[in-house]
Design a protein that fits this description.
alpha/beta; D-Maltodextrin-Binding Protein, domain 2; 6-stranded mixed beta sheet; 5-stranded mixed beta sheet; 13 helices; about 45% helix; globular; binds succinic acid
């Protein structure tokens, strides 16, 4: 009996040794698997495990299963997780310059976001977290933001007095204050319940996030504003990333860039599909703005640029505006 137990233990140890990878990359994020970020994360897992079998194991935790965004950056710094793709709106504590991406009506569409990110200024911003323990590895797209509430938001005055959930961003707070609204910084994982219980009146998000998290089921009106962008910084713990063995790191890096390219190539169609699904569901009425109505929103929100010019840097804002043709 004793020799049987020892043999069984030895078999277990051998099996463990054969299957356990040398390196584990825990990738925590907050959106559904159907979103561009969810798809990118799964692609990264597939590519790495195919190319480095037994050496690197990627564990993906979607939908805030492990951490919400605010908790994930400290967890990354402590090396509890090794990869994140956090909204650029949530980095204020670590760098003021990424607040650029929250300026309302800076980018007319995702092509303009792409152009700026590929520019020398956009690429330099990837290094803006140097010294924080976080290394920026690339930009990942979600899409343009739309506004939703339980009352129609056709002109800026319609937002006056309403409570809006925002990401942890002072620029977004200023944007809603400029409309006379009350901004509330809350994690993405809490938005549905806040809307459902009417603790908040509205929110801003992309079509794919609205649809995959069912916000449209608890919001009667959605206005096509495209007033801002949700984009991500894919980032790792600097020591972990640079400490990977020489025969592993380039393979992981290449897989990551391929996965980012894959996610970015899918982003627009996933967002378009989100809109089609929201409209087909019949829960919310979708409002298009006339050029005159849109101009009123631009006029109401645009003063936010001047408020943050010193923190972000006027040259950076000018470079982004130039890529946008705005
Ligand atoms: C995300 O897309 O990662 C979350 C966006 C949000 O917090 O609204």
């Amino acid at each position: 009996m004793r020799s049987f137990v020892i043999a069984a233990m030895a078999t277990t140890m051998l099996t463990t040794a054969a299957t356990a990878a040398d390196i584990t990359i825990k990738f925590s994020h907050v959106t559904a698997e159907s979103t561009p970020k969810g798809q990118m994360a799964l692609k990264f897992e597939e590519l790495v495990e195919e190319r480095l079998p037994g050496r690197v194991d990627v564990e993906v935790f979607p939908s805030s299963q492990l951490y919400n965004d605010d908790a994930s950056l400290p967890a990354l710094i402590f090396d509890d997780i090794q990869l994140v793709a956090v909204s650029l709106s949530k980095f204020k504590k670590y760098t003021p310059s990424l607040q650029l991406f929250d300026l309302p009506f800076l980018f007319p569409d995702m092509a303009a976001v792409d152009r700026f990110q590929a520019s020398p200024e956009g690429q330099e911003l990837l290094d803006s977290l140097d010294g924080t323990g976080i290394v920026g590895l690339g930009y990942l797209h979600n899409g343009m933001k739309q506004l939703s509430a339980n009352t129609p938001l056709i002109e800026p005055d319609d937002a006056d007095g309403l409570k809006f959930r925002i990401q942890a961003s002072d620029v977004l707070a200023a944007q809603f204050e400029a409309l006379g609204g009350t901004p509330l910084k809350k994690p993405f994982s809490e938005v549905f319940v806040l809307l459902q219980t009417k603790a908040i009146d509205g929110q801003e998000n992309t079509w794919s996030n609205i649809y995959s998290k069912k916000f449209h089921e608890v919001q009667e009106h959605i206005t096509v504003t495209n007033h801002g962008v949700i984009d991500y910084l894919v980032a790792s713990n600097e020591e972990f990333w640079n400490g990977m063995p020489d025969d592993v790191k380039p393979v992981v890096e290449e897989a990551l860039q391929e996965a980012i390219g894959y996610g970015n190539a899918l982003a627009q169609s996933i967002d378009d599909e989100g809109r089609v699904n929201v409209e087909a569901s019949g829960y919310s009425t979708v409002h298009e703005l006339t050029p005159e109505q849109r101009a009123l929103w631009v006029e109401a929100m645009r003063p936010v640029w001047a408020q943050f010019e010193d923190e972000i840097g006027p040259e950076l804002i000018a470079a982004a505006a130039q890529s946008s043709g705005s």
